[in-house]
Write a structure and sequence with these properties.
375 residues, single chain, globular, two-stranded antiparallel ribbon, 41% helix
Length: 375
């Protein structure tokens, strides 16, 4: 590479880093302001808070991270939501830990312990009496948990804060011994649902196939959901492993490399789309009827034009996926899809769901909210 090209690489790297830092700063500022408003509102109306995850009611937000620490939320990039460590504690001890107890106590006093609470789906507003009761009593999270099998990812999405996440973990990949420990926890407490993903790309783990086989072997009735960008789901062994799940979402945010790389930097539309098609074909060849495959299309103001959406729907139909869904987002702040909120086109697109809008293309008998976080 020439000296001139090297300079351009460094310059682009600085621009990307600056964009990530700016978005991270804006996100933290937004959450800090929202936290302040929520606390003032609670004080004015004599309300308090509690956390559905820390009460054991959520099927989503209690997350076992790649280093076996446990977070109370799925957006714990900096470790501020760590409530324990399965390297030295049981899951029950983690949920009863001083940190978890402290979080419940702060919520019951009408304050939010960390700024992530301000935008968390498991944060609840309630009466002072109910808040005190929730602070003192909780149950095991038998509805579901998350497992972050890796924090590595080949993409550098603008709002993912990959560097911060990696720095907050002691290990990039979960080990097979730790997976066996997680499997024992799932079996012991009769946990019903596993979200096998979080801040990394599930199929970036070199032994992801072994991980899923170990989990499924001991928990045949467990419902497993996976979210993937699809880039590394590219071998027969990984496709066989994917067959052990009940639900797989492919996050492909565009119809070509140009639209995808505005957010999913490092993406290849052709590779991700082809891997999605191959998984559908692999499912057909294996005669699997229990796996639902969805194309998850996050909406930004550069990929939300009507012609793009219609083309995506046609591509989804050609790929043979069961569902294509369209998800509005508030991050990055400069990418908000105003067309989603203002255009009548979106009000007639498929059906409204907790995700945004979705069009069901296959498996008509599949439950409509099979992958919905029950929280």
């Amino acid at each position: 590479m020439s000296i001139e090209n090297n300079c351009w690489v460094r310059r682009i790297g600085k621009i990307i880093t600056t964009a990530e830092r700016l978005n991270y700063f804006c996100q933290k500022t937004y959450r800090a302001v929202r936290r302040h408003i929520l606390e003032l509102s609670a004080a004015a109306t004599r309300k308090r808070f509690y956390c559905a995850a820390l009460s054991g009611e959520s099927a989503y937000n209690i997350c076992i991270n790649s280093d076996m620490t446990v977070s109370c939320n799925c957006q714990d990039y900096d470790g501020s939501g760590h409530i324990g460590d399965l390297n030295s504690e049981s899951l029950e001890e983690v949920l009863a830990s001083p940190k978890a107890t402290h979080f419940r106590s702060i919520l019951a006093s009408g304050r939010l312990p960390i700024i992530t609470c301000a935008s968390c789906s498991d944060m609840r507003v309630t009466t002072p009496n109910e808040a005190r009761h929730r602070a003192e009593t909780w149950q095991m999270c038998t509805e579901g948990i998350m497992v972050e099998n890796t924090v590595a990812c080949p993409y550098r999405c603008t709002a993912c804060y990959r560097t911060i996440a990696i720095e907050s973990r002691r290990a990039t990949h979960i080990t097979l011994d730790d997976i066996r420990k997680v499997t024992t926890i799932i079996h012991k407490y009769g946990i019903k649902h596993l979200s096998f993903f979080n801040l990394g790309e599930t199929f970036a783990a070199p032994d992801v196939g072994d991980q899923l086989y170990i989990i499924r072997e001991s928990n045949p009735n467990l419902s497993i959901s996976i979210s993937t960008n699809g880039l590394l789901l590219n071998t027969v062994k990984k496709r066989d492993a994917a067959m052990l799940a009940n639900y797989i979402k492919f996050s492909i945010d565009g119809i070509d490399d140009h639209t995808m790389n505005k957010y999913q930097r490092g993406a290849s539309f052709s590779k991700a789309y082809d891997n999605m098609k191959q998984l559908v074909e692999h499912r057909r060849q294996r005669g699997i009827t229990t796996l639902i495959i969805e194309w998850k299309y996050v909406l930004f103001n550069w990929n939300d034009h009507e012609r793009m959406i219609l083309q995506a729907v046609e591509l989804a139909r050609n790929a043979g996926v069961d569902i294509i869904s369209f998800w509005p987002t508030m991050s990055p702040f400069y990418g908000i899809s105003w067309r989603y909120y203002l255009k009548t086109f979106y009000k007639t697109l498929g059906e409204p769901t907790w995700k945004g809008r979705e069009i069901r293309l296959g498996q008509p008998n599949a439950p409509a909210n099979a992958d919905k976080p029950r929280c």
